[in-house]
Structures are given as structure tokens and as C-alpha cells.
């Protein structure tokens, strides 16, 4: 029986690439209920994302553009989901 490996879909936008990198290194996560991206505030994960952007940017994109995309995405993501009710501090 012939078996093939399934390829991951190509990322079509620079923002999509940045989201993928940040999720892969654990810098952001998705709210399980609503799908909003949340910043995990992990400085080491952020550093790994910037290293990837510098060393292996997407085809046709400079390292500076890739790092700028990482920065823009991190600046646009909060640490809480806007749809989740606030957790009471006890």
C-alpha cells in the first residue's frame, strides 16, 4: 500500500507565519474557548522566536521584516482573552 506524508499547509501571510512561529516556541497560546491569542509572557520563548526570524525567515522576506512581524504580533496580543470572564483574585 502506498503511503504519503501529509505536508503542512503553506502559510500565506507574514502575520500567519509569525503566529505559527510564536505558537511553536510557546510564546503565545490560543484561548481554548474563544480562539483569541494570548501572550504567555515567556521571555525565553520570545528570544527563540526572534532567533528563528533572524535565521530562517520565510521565502522572499528579509530577516528585518520577519522580526518586525514577530514584534507587531506580540504588540497586538494581550495576556487575557477579551471574551473570558475575569478570574476573581483570592
Describe the protein in words:
This protein is mostly helical. The model has no long low-confidence stretch (mean pLDDT 87). Strands 1-2 form a two-stranded antiparallel sheet. It starts with 13 loop residues before the first helix and ends in a 14-residue tail after the last helix. It is elongated. 43% of the residues lie in helices and 7% in strands. 16% of the residues are buried. Helix 1 crosses helix 2 (43-55).
Please render the helix and strand layout as text.
Layout (H helix, E strand, L loop, with lengths): L13 H12 L2 E3 L6 E3 L3 H13 L7 H14 L14
Antiparallel strand pairs: 1-2
Mean pLDDT level? 87
Fraction of residues in β-strands: 5-15%
Number of strands: 2
Shape: elongated
Q: How would you write the strand order of the largest sheet?
A: 1-2
Radius of gyration, rounded? 16 Å
Strand-pairing-aware structural class: mainly alpha
Q: Give helix and strand order, one letter per element, not per position.
A: HEEHH
Amino acid at each position: 500500500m502506498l503511503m504519503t506524508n501529509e505536508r503542512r499547509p503553506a502559510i500565506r501571510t507574514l502575520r500567519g507565519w509569525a503566529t505559527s512561529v510564536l505558537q511553536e516556541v510557546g510564546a503565545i497560546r490560543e484561548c481554548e474557548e474563544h480562539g483569541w491569542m494570548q501572550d504567555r509572557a515567556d521571555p525565553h520563548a520570545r528570544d527563540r522566536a526572534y532567533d528563528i526570524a533572524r535565521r530562517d525567515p520565510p521565502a522572499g522576506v528579509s530577516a528585518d521584516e520577519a522580526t518586525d512581524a514577530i514584534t507587531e504580533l506580540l504588540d497586538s496580543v494581550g495576556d487575557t482573552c477579551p471574551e473570558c470572564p475575569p478570574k476573581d483574585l483570592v
